[in-house]
Amino acid sequence: MRDFFIALFSPLAPRLRRIHPNVLTLFSLLMGVLAGVSFVLTRFSPLYFLVGGGFIALSGMGDSLDGIVARAHAKTSRTGDFLDHFVDRLVDVAILSGLAFSRGAHATLGFILIVLALLHSYLGTQIEATLGKRSYAGTGKAELFVAFIVFTIPACFLSDWHVRVGGHELVFADLFMLVLSLGTAISLAQRFRRGLRACRQVDGREE
């Protein structure tokens, strides 16, 4: 899905020649924070789920465009790469924290999801640091953003729906976090296995 968004937004690159890629990165951060705030505000009105989905879409657009513009206009830099990776994690935490404190949601599920998402992202970065190439296999940020945008539509209309599981009432946001946590955990395990296998192959060639 990452390649799809690169192809989708690449035609915009020539129009953004005068905009520095780091500005787009910071735009992505601002939109991500506003998305998290919007999710918290669903405590007052479920319509804020849709607002949050709109901010997530804008954040994802900024995150895609910063790299596209940097490569198209020869503005790539270590500073930009460093900033992009760090901002990505800030956006993840902002959005997931907002979801954890959204209308009727259980914060504990949000905390678990945040930990899994950060571990998943860290593992990709560690594979890149160890092997010199980034692993984009499995569930990535693009897939996560699409899942969130899709989620906000039914969440707006089913915000007060709930189901009782093991003596606990779970709202629609809780079920979404459970599914997302399970998917992230599976992707984390797969990425770890592939990374470990790749490291062993390199170690075998060096012996």
Task: Give your account of this protein's structure.
- With 207 residues, the protein is mainly α.
- It has a single domain (2-206), classed as Four Helix Bundle (Hemerythrin (Met), subunit A) (Up-down Bundle), CATH 1.20.120.
- It is built from seven helices and two strands.
- The chain has helices at 2-9, 21-41, 48-72, 78-100, 107-131, 141-157, 172-206, and strands at 162-165, 168-171.
- It has a two-stranded antiparallel sheet with strand order 1-2.
- The protein is flat and about 55 Å long.
Jot down its keywords:
Four Helix Bundle (Hemerythrin (Met), subunit A), two-stranded antiparallel ribbon, 207 residues, 2 strands, 7 helices, mainly alpha
Short description:
The chain is mostly helical.
Structural class: mainly alpha
N-to-C span: 37 Å
As a percent range, the share of helical residues equals over 70%
Q: Tell the overall outline.
A: flat
- Which CATH class applies here? Mainly Alpha
User: Can you name the CATH architecture?
Assistant: Up-down Bundle
Which percent band covers the strand fraction? under 5%
Mean pLDDT: 90
Number of domains: 1
With strands numbered from the N-terminus, the spatial order across the biggest sheet is: 1-2
Q: Based on DSSP secondary structure assignment, what is the total number of beta strands?
A: 2
Give unreliable regions as ranges: none
Radius of gyration, Cα only, in angstroms?
Answer: 18 Å
Major sheet attributes: 2 strands, antiparallel
User: How large is the count of helical segments?
Assistant: 7
SSE pattern? HHHHHHEEH
